[in-house]
Amino acid sequence: MTEEIEISELDRKIVRLLQGEFPLVAEPYKALAAEIGITEEELLTHITAMREEKKIRKMGAVLRHREVGFTANCLCVWNVPDGRVDEVAKRMAEHPRVSHCYDRNRTDDWQYNLYTMIHGYSREECEEIAAELAASTGIEERRMLYTKKEWKKTSMRYFSEDD
């Protein structure tokens, strides 16, 4: 049986804020908080509480890589020893040209368990970045899957203004 989680009106307002465009200003949370009439501290405290209460699971950015000039992008999949996944993922995620880094279960016909999204100005640059990641982690076995077509990027919408 699933436990019902109460979603308050403030929860809804905050989710609406977080699923929209993130303001590109020096104090983005302050700007967001002002939109719904609370302080930055109240917003951050409430976001933390919502995470702890499992009302929200994660927040993430969508990189529109072509808009910022990247013309080559690839999903690089790595075969990482299971005991090193966290350590290797942390190191790879620190690279400024890696926008996503996550682990996945292996399957019988796919041995790769760590995925990184690499952005560059050319395929050669993406390959250089992958080589840097390999050298810094000691993980060599990888495949590079290049973007052929960019699909429209949209985020999930949980509450609309009508809810």
TrEMBL record:
Stored Pfam families: AsnC_trans_reg2 (PF17805), NirdL-like_HTH (PF22451)
Pathway terms, separated by semicolons: Porphyrin-containing compound metabolism
Protein name (record): siroheme decarboxylase
Domain Siroheme decarboxylase NirL-like HTH: 11-57
Reaction(s) this enzyme catalyzes, per UniProt: siroheme + 2 H(+) = 12,18-didecarboxysiroheme + 2 CO2
Keyword Lyase: yes
Domain Siroheme decarboxylase AsnC-like ligand binding, chain residue ranges per copy: 68-152
The keyword Nucleus is assigned to this record: no
Key words of the record: Lyase
Organism in which the protein naturally occurs: Centipeda periodontii DSM 2778
Molecular-function GO terms, alphabetical: lyase activity
EC number, as in UniProt: 4.1.1.111
Transmembrane annotation, as ranges: none
Matching InterPro entries: AsnC_trans_reg2 (IPR040523), HTH-Siroheme_Decarb (IPR050684), NirdL-like_HTH (IPR053953)
UniProt lineage: Bacteria, Bacillati, Bacillota, Negativicutes, Selenomonadales
Family: Belongs to the Ahb/Nir family.
